[in-house]
Each structure stands twice: as structure tokens, then as C-alpha cells.
Design goal:
2 strands; mainly alpha
């Protein structure tokens, strides 16, 4: 069933508001955990959003948003994930 809302009134869209609040709270918690400077806010928000999209959701029969929204329907590969805030180094080639 399609529902219409008044433009520029996000409070009418409770699903969006809940998702946005969850994203903001998760981002805040990740910042506190990793002790990062504010210059990393974009990376933290992107990481938080990604993690929420690959997390299982009980109301979707334990599927992830990734599985539900992609044509493939397979589970996402999570082997590339590390603990958020872990020590990392950037490798710069000698030519650069």
C-alpha cells in the first residue's frame, strides 16, 4: 500500500526517522570506542551504514538488507572486516 506524506516533514516517516536515529547513535558509539578525531566523521557514517546493511534482521527471516536488496540473494562476504578503530598503516609506493 502506497502512502503519501507532506513534503519536508520527515517526522511523518517513522521508519526513516528510526533508521536515521539508529545510524546517528551507532556512529556516536563508534567514535567513542575508537577515539577518532572529528575529521573521520564521513568514514564512520559510511562504515556504520555498511555494517547495518550487512547485519541480519529478524523481521526479514534473518536476512540482511544486502541479501534482500541485491539480485544475487546471496550472503555478503565479511572476511574483509576488521575491528573498528584498530591500528592501521597506509602503504605509499616509493614512486609516489
Amino acid at each position: 500500500m502506497q502512502q503519501y506524506i507532506t513534503p519536508y516533514t520527515p517526522k511523518q516517516n517513522s521508519v526513516f526517522e528510526h533508521k536515521n536515529r539508529t545510524l546517528v547513535e551507532s556512529t556516536h558509539n563508534m567514535f567513542q570506542f575508537a577515539n577518532l578525531p572529528n575529521s573521520f566523521v564521513g568514514e564512520v557514517v559510511a562504515t556504520t551504514c555498511y555494517l547495518q546493511n550487512v547485519s541480519r534482521i529478524s523481521i526479514m527471516d534473518e536476512k540482511t538488507l544486502y541479501e534482500a536488496c541485491h539480485w544475487i540473494g546471496s550472503k555478503p562476504n565479511l572476511q574483509h572486516l576488521w575491528i573498528f578503530g584498530c591500528l592501521a598503516y597506509e602503504h605509499v609506493l616509493k614512486e609516489l
